[in-house]
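Researcher: Excuse me, tokens okay?
***
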Amino acid sequence: MQTTKLTSESILPLTCSRAGTCCYGKAVMLNPWELLQFSIEKKVSPKTFRDLYTDFGGVRLTFNGKKDSKGQSACSQYIDTKGCSVHNGRPLACRLYPLGRQIQFNKAHYMFEGKEFPCLTDCAEVLNLPKLTVGNYLKGQGATPFENAQDAYLELMQNIADVAFQLLLETGLSASGDTKTLQMWQAMGTASPEDLTQRIGTDWLDALMLPAIDKTIDNPIDFATAHNELLMAKIQDNFGGLDTLAKISDAAILLIGVALQLARGLGANTQEIASHWVATAKSHGALD
């Protein structure tokens, strides 16, 4: 689909009318920091929020509310006639909407889908409201800490994948002629969210989405750093002394699955990422 690229100085009709039309029929993905912020605003534990209001182990917000005229279900946190019940805890996807965000060469870029500004289809009244630059809109939405969380978790995702690469390339596994590992990496990239969640299992899903970190850490970068330390310690405890190539292969497969699960929560294309990782491993001598 064609996209319209923007700069922070681009001026658009970005003042929201709070009509709620964007709270229907969306796929709102969550990273662990965002799950925590939702739970704080809801005044429940992260586990309770995850189990009641998210799908696939916590990486997608559940949309099971009242349907609109198009038959689309509302977000589980949306209250008809009142709006979002946890507005202060809303994730980056909601704060950016209708904009998208990509990181290229360590710089954030913004865009929207198509040629026409998306909100005009269902909320034409925004044309009567003040226009804002992209930068001022994001500032008003309080997007910065949530962007920081997104970027920190992208780095954590790659850290998990790097361990899988080490298991594949530095233990003799790839040199043994193994082909199963890369085949499974590719297969997990195209697996359904349900299948990938089941393959990872409850223990690792909990470690990924419900880290045992003091929720008073209000800096998302510090939170992600602490989470990274917990995950690396768990990886070492579970996979630090593997004694057969079969066990090493299973560990490398599982860790790529965990990394892809996090990638899904970050809104990334798991098939593209898996293909990239497979190609990178093959360029270092691994076989598929």
About this structure: The chain has a mean pLDDT of 96.
